[in-house]
Amino acid sequence: MVGILVHGDNHFIVRGPLPDRETALALVRHWSLIEIGATTPPALAEWQIVIREFRENLEWAVVVPSDSETSPAVTTLLGELAARGIAIHNSRLLRW
Q: Measured between alpha carbons, how far is residue 35 from residues 9, 87, 88 in Å?
């Protein structure tokens, strides 16, 4: 599966299953800070950043709120996904 993980003005195209709330938060924390030589924690090994993917292949979306605003391009993409019937999960919610 491939999806998009959005964190404010940053986003990641991700190969892996739809992460739960806690995992989405952990992925954002892990990928938002570049640490040379760091290894991916075993609990996050199921997910990988994808460099290129067709938007038609995206199967899930998770938004992790941030102090910065989501870019207009990503907002448009999220709208396209919602129009295709893909739920846009928000990590502020307790469950999804």
A: 20, 32, 29
In a domain, 96, yes or no: no
Q: Which letter, b or e, does each residue of 29-38 get, where b requires 16 or more Cβ atoms within 10 Å of its Cβ?
A: eebeeeeeee
Q: Looking at the domain assignment, is residue 53 inside a domain?
A: yes
For 62, the domain range is 21-90
> Which has the closest alpha carbon to 38: 27, 46, 30, 50?
30
- Residue 5 falls within a domain, yes or no? no
Span between the terminal Cα atoms of the chain, in Å = 18
* pTM: predicted TM-score of the whole model, two decimal places: 0.88
| pLDDT (tens digit per residue) in 72-89 | 999 999 999 999 999 999
Question: Nearest CA to 3 among 57, 40, 69?
Answer: 57
